Amino acid sequence: MSVSTFGARLAAAMDAHGPLCVGIDPHASLLADWGLPDDATGVREFALRVMDAVAGHVAAVKPQAAFFERHGSAGVAVLEEVVAAGRETGTLVVVDAKRGDIGSTMGAYADAFLRDGSPLAGDALTVSPYLGFGSFDPAVDLALATGRGLFVLCLTSNKEGHEVQHARTEDGVSVAAMVAARAAAINADATPLGSVGLVVGATVGDAAARAGVDLAHVNGPLLAPGVGAQGAGTAELVQVFGAARRQVLASSSRGVLRAGPEVAALRAAASRASAEAAAALR
Fold first, then answer.
1. Which residues form the active site (predicted)?
2. What confidence tens digit (pLDDT) does each residue in 218-245 have?
3. Which residue segment(s) compose the domain that 274 sits in?
4. Which CATH number is 237's domain given?
C-alpha cells in the first residue's frame, strides 16, 4: 500500500485511465451467460477473467462482496484473490461491502477491510451511515491512517432510499445533506481530492438539489453506480453532478460484463465505457 492518500491515487488513476470503475458482479445469470457454474469455481473464473481484461486499463474495479459471500468461504477466498490481483497490477480496488455497525463490531469490520495486511483490504470500502455518521468513525480513522478511502452511501437510486435520505431534521436539513457535510469536513483542504467520498446514483436526477446537497463542496470522489446498462448516459450524468463532474468515478457493471466472456471483448467494452464517461465528465 502506497503511503499516498486514496484520494490522490484515485485522482491520478482517473487522469491516466479515465473516470471509470468496472463492477465485478458475478450474478448467477451472468455466470450462466458465460457458460460457468454457479459456484465458487465459476465465480473465480469470472472475476479473474474480468481482472485480466481491465486491470491496468481502468481507474478502478469494484467487486460486490455479496456475490462472493453467497458461496461461503470459497467465495470469500476468491474476493481475496481479486484484491491481491488489484494490488499486483496497480489497479485500485473498491470493495463494495456497504458495512455499517457500531462500536467494536464496526471496528472489526474496519480491521477486516482497511487494515494493512488483511487479505480483504483493497483501496477503499463502501459504508452505510444510517446508524449515524459517527458510528463508522473506526473505519474513517483506519482508512486515513493506512492511506485508504471510504465511499459513504448518500443518494442512492433505489426507490426506498428517499425515505431516509430525504428525511429532514427539525432544522430542515436533509439526512443526505448531513452525510455530505460530514464527508466535506473530513476532506477539508485535501488536494487534489479527499479520501472520504460519497455514493450517488447516476440515475437520481435532481435528487441532490432537492436534498440540498452541494456535491462540489464535498471535495471527495463521487462513486456513481448506474452508468450504461442501468440507463445513465451523458445527459443524466450532467444533470446529477453538474459542477462536481470531475469528482465522479462512474461505475459500470453489466454494461461491461455482458460483453464477456472473451477477454478482448471485455477490454473493448471497458474502453468504450471509459471514453463515454470521460466525454461526459471531463
1. 98
2. 999 999 998 765 566 778 888 899 999 9
3. 6-281
4. 3.20.20.70
